[in-house]
């Protein structure tokens, strides 16, 4: 059984973290453990792809996005070491991939926090951890998206992942505003989103209670770095304000829907983006020649919503325009 470490695309020298990658025999043992775990979870219909291996917590999946998650872990671990006020971050241990049939599975190995519990009753600690996360500077070369260059993740986007690696805040605003123009008109219509005066911050876009844990010493840890990405501040506010973790956390942060001008428009745009993400815009927010995807409607809605049909402009064949047909 063979395994191969993926070459890093990170700007950071992993040696400064004193990482001690697993031995070849430990990697092979871990691969076998994960394969056995896959068989067990299929039978139980539990889709979790995490295991405890010796003294380590391991997350694995057959997705290239796991590489971005590991780069985020390394970056935030580095920043937390420099700041005594930071929440705890698990120590990164190893990252490697392994070919299984036609799938290349990746494995993140990190420090295991013993006896930790979800921070359901610690809103102040969670808010303080988020404040620290929001204050972490972006790495060189990353404007919108993940450390390592992946797409942003957020519940506004279909399947929680942006369809493009947006070049700047104006591009992501143009994308959401395009979605607003496609929705059936309402009175009054939503205002355009505007991120021009907002900071770009690290946002935990999955406010699940299990992503913030308290250890036996009462210290809070940030875990699960898949959904931590750089986005305009409105995205962080949207996630926290719509979180299942309660109202105490946004209160601690001083955030409210009333003080969030983009909130209503982002909610409206999300409605469209979960039906289609093909809006004929590129990563800079400019029109493309690709036609927008026609949106399939459920029969019970087809008599209420007009059909949006993308066509070429009569004056410019390279420009995509929208024609609204009566509901069919």
Overview of this structure, please?
The structure is a single chain. With 328 residues, the protein is α+β, with helices and mostly antiparallel strands. It folds into three domains: 14-112, Phosphorylase Kinase, domain 1 (2-Layer Sandwich); 123-288, Aminoglycoside 3'-phosphotransferase, Chain: A, domain 2 (Alpha-Beta Complex); 289-328, no CATH class. It is 28% helix and 18% strand. It is built from seven helices and eleven strands. The chain has helices spanning 24-44, 65-81, 123-135, 169-182, 233-241, 248-253, 263-273; strands spanning 50-53, 56-61, 92-100, 103-111, 117-118, 200-204, 212-214, 220-222, 228-232, 307-312, 320-325. The strands form four sheets. A four-stranded antiparallel beta sheet has the order 1-2-4-3, with helices on both faces. A three-stranded antiparallel beta sheet has the order 5-7-8, covered by helices on one side. Strand 10 and strand 11 (320-325) form a beta hairpin.
């Amino acid at each position: 059984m063979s395994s191969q470490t993926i070459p890093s695309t990170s700007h950071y020298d992993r040696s400064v973290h004193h990482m001690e990658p697993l031995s070849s025999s430990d990697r092979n043992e871990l691969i076998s453990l994960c394969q056995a775990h896959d068989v067990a979870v299929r039978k139980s219909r539990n889709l979790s792809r995490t295991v405890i291996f010796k003294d380590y917590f391991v997350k694995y999946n057959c997705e290239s996005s796991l590489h971005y998650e590991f780069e985020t872990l390394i970056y935030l671990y580095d920043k937390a070491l420099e700041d005594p006020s930071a929440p705890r971050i698990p120590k990164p241990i190893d990252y490697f991939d392994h070919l299984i049939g036609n799938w290349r599975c990746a494995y993140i190995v990190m420090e295991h926090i013993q006896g930790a519990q979800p921070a359901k009753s610690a809103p102040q600690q969670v808010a303080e951890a988020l404040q620290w996360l929001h204050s972490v500077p972006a790495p060189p070369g990353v404007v919108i998206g993940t450390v390592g260059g992946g797409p942003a993740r957020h519940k506004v986007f279909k399947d929680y992942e942006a369809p493009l690696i947006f070049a700047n805040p104006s591009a992501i605003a143009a994308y959401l505003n395009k979605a607003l123009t496609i929705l059936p008109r309402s009175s009054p219509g939503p205002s355009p989103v505007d991120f021009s005066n907002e900071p770009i911050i690290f946002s935990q876009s999955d406010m699940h209670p299990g992503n913030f844990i308290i250890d036996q010493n009462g210290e809070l840890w940030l875990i699960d770095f898949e959904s931590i990405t750089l986005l305009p501040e409105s995205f962080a506010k949207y996630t926290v304000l719509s979180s299942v973790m309660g109202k105490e956390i946004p209160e601690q942060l001083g955030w409210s829907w009333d003080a969030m001008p983009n909130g209503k428009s982002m909610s409206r745009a999300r409605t469209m983006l979960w039906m289609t993400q093909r809006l004929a815009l590129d990563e800079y927010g400019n029109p493309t020649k690709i036609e927008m995807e026609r949106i399939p409607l459920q029969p019970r809605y087809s008599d209420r919503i007009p059909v949006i049909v993308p066509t070429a402009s009569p004056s410019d064949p390279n420009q995509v325009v929208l024609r609204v047909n009566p509901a069919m």
